[in-house]
């Protein structure tokens, strides 16, 4: 399955990219499994997505939790807690 | 309902007038204007840069205003949020709500701002004499949003 990954604000800067198309291995079926797979890249990925750090996730532009199943073509966004207004 | 995310400035008078000009049922408009301050957490702020998530941000704002419309008898609402680089004294956000009576307008305006601050994907980066840094989310904003679900 292929998904579009979007990163914003501090995470965009730390990861060095705002968007990527990722081909996921078969064992990645949920948002939580995607986060674990991204942590496996090490460096900024492991550091920023570590347990205890604050981030939010959305699937197809709706806030979503780790149990959310992923489908081919999904748009998945990872970003820090929001600070607008 | 008018929802806009834009880089350019907005005209407060024109936006407020548009909410009531053609509707004699409107007896109250409450408007909140958020501005860039020159100091935050004790540091001087030279510029503030706002980033958003195009698509999701607009959807989130529409949902927040729809929830306000479900809670209070509103006649119209406008939310305009700026993005890009802003300087102290510049407006960041406008929330304006029209209703028959003041109570609904005041409450809905505060509700929309509290939810915007905790649910709409915007991020602020400040440039100070010590360098640039991303603004951290505040627990007090979460508490302000939570008060609307207490005893509901």
The name of the CATH architecture of chain A is Roll
Point out poorly predicted stretches of chain B: none
Radius of gyration of chain B: 16 Å
Q: SS-based structural class of chain A? A: alpha+beta
What is the CATH superfamily classification of chain B?
Molybdopterin biosynthesis MoaE subunit
Q: Span from first to last CA of chain A? A: 37 Å
- CATH hierarchy, class of chain B: Alpha Beta
H/E element order of chain A: EHEHHEEE
Hey, roughly how much beta strand do the residues of chain A contain? 25-35%
Task: Determine the structural class of chain B based on helices, strands and strand pairing.
Answer: alpha+beta
Instruction: Give the number of DSSP strands of chain A.
Output: 5
Beta-strand segment tally of chain B: 10
Just name the CATH architecture of chain B. Alpha-Beta Complex
